[in-house]
Amino acid sequence: MAEAWRVIAREEKDELGEGPLWSAKHNALFWVDILSHFLYRYSLADGSIRRWSMPENIGWVVERSSKPGFIAGLQSGFYELDLEPLALRLIVDPEPQLPGNRLNDAKVDRHGQIWAGTMDAAIVETTGSLYCLRPDMSVLRVDEGYKVTNGPTFSPKQDFMYHTNTPARTIYRFDLSPEGELSNKKEWLKFPDDLGFPDGMTTDAEGFLWIAHWGGSRISRWSPDAKLDREIRLPAPQITSIAFSGPELDRMFVTSAAKGLDRSKETFAGSLFEVDAGGVRGLPPGLFGG
Length: 290
Fold this sequence. Notes:
The chain has a single domain (5-275), classed as 6 Propeller (Neuraminidase), CATH 2.120.10. 0% of the residues lie in helices and 51% in strands. It is built from no helices and 24 strands. The chain has strands spanning 5-7, 17-23, 28-33, 38-43, 49-53, 58-63, 70-74, 77-83, 86-92, 101-108, 114-120, 128-133, 139-146, 149-154, 160-165, 170-176, 182-190, 197-203, 209-214, 218-222, 228-233, 239-245, 251-256, 273-275. The strands form six sheets. The protein has a four-stranded antiparallel sheet with strand order 1-24-23-22, with no helix packed on it. A four-stranded antiparallel sheet has the order 2-3-4-5, with no helix packed on it. A four-stranded antiparallel sheet has the order 6-7-8-9, with no helix packed on it. β16 (170-176) and β17 form a beta hairpin. It is globular, with a radius of gyration of 17 Å. The termini are far apart. Its cofactor is Zn(2+). Keywords: Metal-binding, Zinc.
């Protein structure tokens, strides 16, 4: 029986691979290695991989709707990012009083707003919050009390947003209003101990959530009413995030981490995987409106 996954071949493995992003403009998948301060681009046209070095921890990048370049979440805040040539310009540090915090995971809604969480980089204090960066570059804190924020994703109609507190093994669901405001936070899913910890997420075109399992060696698909639909096992214990890619959004890529592992034993840890999602397609990523 053929495996449901393949490794995207490259020499290095990610210490903490995260933030996969499909770019139709570049026909490429972007992702980051947070702790090694790298941004990667994998070309779907020819399989080539390009790497850029960042000055500090980088949690994610998202594309802009009407301007070139990206918005990036770094240790010290939200930045405008250009790649050719490489340039970073600070937009705002949402937490100047918490220099040990960093931005960790983000998605863009249909209003062009970025929803991004922060966390204590040392994973000791419960100082993480959820923020909204609006197209006018204003930032609003909308929730707090997280040790590790992760995996924002939206329902297809964008009437709900899902957000994770990873150490608590809990995924929350918020109502998302037509005006792009959150309310009515509820516990949507709590992982049992044997599944590991919920990490990054994405939503497919049928409205099912795909969740990466940190410490669980798999990804899983869940119905909108939080029923487990399927699991796909992967040969690495720390699976971190998921993105549908390609012009038809029918190619799934999954990031992983080698942090804290014996790499002589966990030889696939830190790999970028392409996974057979069984014919399921994804939703296009949002573009930042500023």
